[in-house]
Fold this sequence. Notes:
Layout: H1 2-20, E1 29-33, H2 39-48, E2 52-55, H3 58-67, E3 77-80, H4 89-92, E4 98-102, H5 105-118, E5 122-128, H6 144-152, E6 157-164, H7 176-190, E7 198-200, H8 207-212, E8 217-220, H9 222-225
Parallel strand pairs: 1-2, 1-8, 2-3, 3-4, 4-5, 5-6, 6-7
Helix pairs in contact: 1-2
Amino acid sequence: MGISGNLNDVMSRIRAAALNADRDPGSVRLVVVSKTVGPEKVMEAVCAGAVILGENRVQEASAKMEALTGRIPAGVEWHLIGTLQKNKARHAVGTFALIHSVDSVELAHEIDRQAAKRGLVQKLLLEINIAGEASKHGFAPEDAKAAAKEVAALANIRLDGLMCVPPFTDDPEDSRPYFVKMRGLLAEINKMGLNLAELSMGMTQDYEVAVQEGATLVRVGTAIFGARSYA
């Protein structure tokens, strides 16, 4: 189908999954994951209707943004979805509309400091290690409430919600319990008086299940651009 056809197919599936769960399809946004994808293919996706581009690495994203200067229309956002090291925070702040992957209070404080220097407020999500995997970054679920309270109090931060990457599986139903747990965790945090609306969860293999369980942001790349080449 090509990038345009793939993108339209994913958007149709998101809409169907939302309606199946009695949700407004407009409450779910698609993050088109453009990591390792060249600028021309990114532009093809944008021309086909992509309005949020998700990148894993600050350096790669910055190079792509520079290559596309003057070509990306107003209203298209760049999101950082990959791990962010503290020493790269200064490059991420103000560059990305939303940072999905804040995995420590220390990183949040550094983002707050860098945002204060620039006189702006940086939007972010807390990454939750929902399955307690040693190979994954993020807050343990039991630590999320305290972390959210501390991060939300920072002057130059706007905490918008939570993000997770459940264990990879070929069966999307295996991801459902983790998405249910994330939805419950967000509800528990909001009982403290916070008003967090975003749940970033679901990728190519399980985004439809994520939508059914409350995702507001789904991160899909392979289903749009095809399998990645990391050579």
